[in-house]
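Supplementary Text 2. Reproducibility record for the structural model of the 311-residue chain.

All settings were left at their defaults, and a single model was retained for analysis rather than an ensemble. We include the record here because the model underlies the residue-level annotations in Supplementary Table 4.
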Amino acid sequence: MIAIKTVGLRKVFKTGIAKKNEVLKGLDLEIEQGETFGYLGPNGAGKTTTLKLLLGLIYPTSGSAFILGESTRNVRVKNLIGFLPEQPYFYTYLTAWEFLDFYSQLFDILGKFRKKRIEELLSLVGLKGKCEKLQLRKFSKGMLQRLGIAQALINDPQVIFLDEPFSGLDPIGRKEIRDIIFKLKDSGKTIFFCSHILSDVELICDRVGILVDGQLRALGKIEDLVDTSLNSAEIAFYGLKEGSKQEIRNFCTQMVDHSDKTLAIFNDRESVDRAVKIITDGKGSLISLTPVRQTLEDIFLKEVITEKQIS
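Retained model, structure tokens:
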């Protein structure tokens, strides 16, 4: 079943008298139920506008959007979705329990079910225990972000929208959020999220879409978009005589000496094989050989830079 679908979705904002800004230019997109989809793009590409259109917070200039087969204009859709904005607002005088209790009442969740649901969510995001009785003003950024995800799940939604869930988090906080998203994936939730942390997107997502200037420039599975063949490699070694090092220096891309160790970078497999042979024949010691392959960041930058050159 298709969880999220857009057909020719377009949004134009008026920016002054007789001036218009076309932010989204006919977006066609389908996301299957249970899929984790990363929606990427530079600032101003139209990602937040897309989210607002899917959430029914604004209406499209033309085109349509659907969630689980229902038009996003249908109020019933709101019961099927959860949303964590990039900059959520928290009533900081409340405790975590009180905060979730407040939001559960918005969905008219009955008392006995409400208590059970809050306990499940606090456990899921790692806030059960002492933290649930702590006022939110004493929470760290990571704790607030985890609570924000719990809030987005209070109605047990089938489709979850997360806008920059890793924003402002340290590596530990990012790992905590990743772990929660993995749990949601395992439970069969459909997850649509925007992020600038491309390494996390690469770990989490089934598919990604790259939006540039209101248009979808790339769409697909990461392994299909990224060239996994060897692009370059880094070799670290020591104990090689200067003559042999000079021989390697003549065909490597870059060579740097660190104390008694040397790091050399090569841009093709033949050069790597040649360098390894020289090190071995010269009785040097090979410390490491690290292949460097294309990443999602490389694809992202290519699409963004290409668009800038065209414009």
